Amino acid sequence: MKHLTLKALFISAVAAFSMNAQAEDVYGQCIADAENVIATAKKEGGPAARAIEQKTTVDQCMAELAKIEAKYGDKTVALNPSYVMTPEDRAKWAKLFDAVDAKKFKGVRYSMASYYR
Predict the structure, then answer these.
(1) Calpha distance 51→109 (Å, rounded)
(2) What is the pLDDT of residues 53-93, one digit of tens each?
(3) How far apart are CA 9 and CA 75, in angstroms?
(4) 18 pLDDT band (50/70/90 cuts)?
(5) What angle do CA 61, 67, 68 make, to 5 degrees?
(6) Which domain holds residue 25?
(7) What is this structure's pTM?
(8) How far apart are CA 74 and CA 33, in angstroms?
(9) Is Signal a UniProt keyword of this protein (predicted)?
(10) Is residue 79 within a helix (H) or strand (E), and if so which, with residue range?
């Protein structure tokens, strides 16, 4: 019985770690895609940036944004979610929001990179 409990604990810990690693992986890929788009726009211009292949879709990144906002539940009703977030979550949320803009080929960073290259 003791071994079964330890095995169950170990398996649940591994599953929780892998789910957390996968969530961080999507977040990291969204950020990496945006940085790649911006770097390409700086180097080669907007048309070249639009032609590169991205690892994640905008919908996947928006789902990550929704996960961050979901932590705060009803506190965000009729408010900007950043008002009730912790500083760490607010920084992740803002960075991901900027990444979504860059993946859509919009936003300040992308526009500055493609226009002033």
Answers:
(1) 18
(2) 999 999 999 999 999 999 988 887 778 888 899 999 999 99
(3) 33
(4) very low
(5) 95
(6) 2-115
(7) 0.73
(8) 31
(9) yes
(10) none
